[in-house]
Each structure stands twice: as structure tokens, then as C-alpha cells.
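W.,

You were right to be curious about this one. When I first looked at the sequence I had no strong expectations either way, so I just let the prediction run and decided to look at it fresh. Below is the sequence, 310 residues in total, followed by the output.
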Amino acid sequence: MRKRLTEIVCCPNCKQELILKHEKTQGEEIVEGKLECMSCHHAYEIFEGVPRIILDLKKRKEIANRYGFEWAKRVEDSFESDTLYGKSEEEELDYFFSSFGIQPSDLNGKSVLDAGCGCGRLTRMLGPYCNEVVGMDIAASINSVYDHCKCQNNIHILQADILKLPFRTNYFDFVWSSGVISYTGSSDEAFQSLSSLVKPHGKLFVRVFSNSNLTAAERLKKIFWFSHKVPKEALFYLCYLLAIPWSITKYLFDKRHKSLKTNAFHLFDTLAHPFTRHSEEEVKSWFKREGFSVIMSRDEGGVSVSGIKE
């Protein structure tokens, strides 16, 4: 991490300032140390360049490990590598800009939070457009994201819990969270946590699982409701077995053909974790309650809503 990050983060417990202590540096990077809260006395470790600003990782260890396994498999090319959820890099960037209704030039001098950054692809791609990008995730694979992003001085990576975000309120111009808050067990609470970080006139985007338009993988999840309890290594191979007939069927009947690796990844991402579903109207009501005007809303393979803070 770089020292600049201390001006952005705060204690997730009491929202007070964190003081950097006992740091070990390599060039401009702080690779080891602690961030301590002088108010409530919580301390957060910096390990291998990544601050771990989580109150109690033990309570969230299972989800951190499962996501870490999932993203590590992608890095080693066991899942799709050239695409992500079937999207190319160009398509993912276009999706980001279109969801906010902006052009790349609109990010000049702006700050962006990628809340639940996964493998960090979008975080890395946004770097050249913004003044500052923060990527955070709970996954145990966050070190890999840091390694891929640390060459860009304006990108910060940390491990954090979206239910207890360690950021100053009203800080970010844009907050992005795609397909994340449904996995927290408390989507509404996670949304409130995210919305508090957006500046007045800033924008927020969230995507959640739909309770009406289910994908084939989500329908399968309703049958195998216990799949998130299956050991992740066994589930990995099961998803490849399931992906074979699924890929053949999609090849024969679906013009939007996707690779076996993409289908296996999609299945694992859906089956490996418990999640909640929401309606489009419910998500829009969250935005309105927190003082946002909705600027985009759709229910296509998931509910996606963006809004501007009034």
C-alpha cells in the first residue's frame, strides 16, 4: 500500500482515523506494518503490501476462502481467462460507462471505489481514466489483485468486508458493486454501507440477483440448494461435469455461445455461495430511501440499478 491510502480509510468499527505504525517499505510501497485506531484501539495488519482492514475475519473466513479459491483458479487458467463472466475487457469497460451514463472523460480527476473487485480486472482498467481507484474484496486471493495493480500509482488495493467498510463517508465520486451485496446475507445493510461513501452528486451502481428472471445456473442452484456446503475442490470438478452438457445445449440452441471454461466458471460462481434475490422495485426503493435519484434500472440476468446522490 501507499501512504496516500491512510487519507482515505478509517476504522470500520468507529470510523475514526487510522495511524500507520511499524511500517516496512520497499520503495514507495509499505509491505508490512499496522494501521491502529487511537479511539477504539483496533489494529489492522498490513501483510505483503495489502492492508487487512477487517474487524473479525474468522466470522467471514469461509466466504473469503471460497472466493479466494475461485479467483485463484481463474488466475491459473482453470476457468475463463481472456473473458470474465463472458465479457471481454472492452465489453466490461463499456458496461461500466453505460451503467453510469458517462463517457471515459467524465472520470478525469474523479475517485472510484470498486467494492468487491474480485480478480481486479475492472479496477486495473479504470486506473488510466481516474485520479484515484480503490479496489477492495474480502477474498483470500486479494494479494494477486495487488500484484497486478501496484504498477499504477493511483490504484489502492485492500482486503475489507462490504458490511463494515473502512472508508470515509461522502468520499467517492463513483461507487461500483456488481454482483456482490447479494452474497453478504444482508443486502440492505450492505447497500446502506455503500451509499454512505458517495459524495453529493456522485453516483452508485449495484447489481443483485433477480427474484424473477433466473438464469439457468440460478435455477440449478434452487435444486442444489446445499451446493455451497460442498467442499470447493469437489464442487470445482462437479461444475465442469455439469458444464459439458450445458455447453453443448447452448451451442445447439443459443446464439450467444460461451466457452466450456466460461460456463464452468459461471456455475461455480453461482453454486459455491449462498445468496439472496431481490426485485427491481425493491432495489430502486433502497436508492430512493438513501437520497438517490435512479438514472438506470434493468432486470436482465440480474437486477442492475444506478443512481445519483441528491
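Here's what jumped out at me. The radius of gyration is 19 Å. And, maybe more interesting for your project: The mean pLDDT is 94.

Coffee later to discuss?

I.
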